[in-house]
Amino acid sequence: MTTPVSVTAADRERLLAGGFDLAALPEGVDVHGPASLPLGIDDVKARFTLYYVGFPTGRYVIATLGDIGGSEPALLRIESACAFGHLFGSLQCDCGWQWRTSLRTIIEAGRGILLYAVDQDARGAGMAAHFDIYQLRQQEDLDTSEVFVRIGALWDSRDYTPVPQLLRAVGTRTIALMSNNAARVALLEEAGFDVTRAPLEAELTVENMSTLMLEKEDLGYAWSFATHADVLEPLQASVADRPQTVAAALAEPGVAPTEHVEASWDDIAEQVRHLAGRVGAAQRQVLYLTDLPRLADLDGFAELGVRTLVTPYPHLPPLLTLAATSSGIRLVDWSRRNAWTVERPQWAPLAADENRHAYRLVGPDLAPVQPEVARSYVRSVAGWTSAP
């Protein structure tokens, strides 16, 4: 039997006595344990057996509860590190929710495995890269796939090679994998495990929806909700041959709306207001627009309950993004598969003060279409009116 070189004779005896099969691991790994610890969440708790295993490619902690070696599937959660979600309770991802839910589910079942990949923050790019990703996403309106390119990292560089070895070491072969990731199911099946998938889907919110929708679209996660692309596509199709007409829909996160409205750029806000009167409060959280909004309309959208505004443009005018933030709205660019393939110039804000908003006509990259053209809107008692 090949023994990991960094395991002492005493450690080896303890590991073998605890049912940990060192022969399942390659030579050169660093193994410590077992540690018996009570783990709990909210009102449930149980005593788990934990091991630390350091591979040349990364560190792992594996925690087991109950009999995981029988013919009945053992619940398994493979969790990649996420400092934002696991440590600080970030609402922009579902990492913390998935980890807590997995722990609770395993405790309530009385048996299962938690496998924590210590070095896989930001899908393997690392914690420092995770900060860079958020900075680029928030400051430069780049979507997740683009920021990985910008920082020179793969979209998903996680290495799951040690996972089958770790599962064999703790003596399990039949698994109920708590995951939405089909790639992880395929990996375990190819390694000879009997795998069923136990869905693990967090509630979609205005905070986490863009992150989760990116993962569904780019990684093929098996989630049930509609993405921004699913909602935008029919809206765009409805006005594709009418560049002067804007289509809009109100929705709750992940639910495709049943109706939409269409109007000119000047009048779309009024039509959105009428639409809001026909739907419930939950359905007003997300506003989809086929075109860029006016600065003057943002406060009104916020008053309707809109918290996120999604539009299919790869670049957003900085003045528009700042104004949206000031109104309490998160402006989301969702070009991706929704980028317009037809000519569709936009009125982008050029300057603004308390009396006047000036716009110029731009293309998808914000380059002026007609540099000499500017259009202004002046506040009056009756609202915003066109001015030469």
TrEMBL record:
Q: Does the entry feature the keyword Metal-binding, yes or no?
A: yes
Q: InterPro entries of this UniProt entry?
A: GTP_cyclohydro_II, RibA-like_sf
Domain of life assignment: Bacteria
Pathway terms, separated by semicolons: Cofactor biosynthesis; riboflavin biosynthesis
Residue intervals passing through the bilayer: none
One matching Pfam family, short form? Answer: GTP_cyclohydro2
Q: Where is the signal peptide?
A: none
Q: Which residues form the GTP cyclohydrolase II domain?
A: 60-197
Keywords attached to this Swiss-Prot or TrEMBL record, sorted alphabetically, are: Metal-binding, Riboflavin biosynthesis
For this protein, the record's PANTHER family field holds:
3,4-DIHYDROXY-2-BUTANONE 4-PHOSPHATE SYNTHASE, GTP CYCLOHYDROLASE II-RELATED
The protein here is known as GTP cyclohydrolase II domain-containing protein
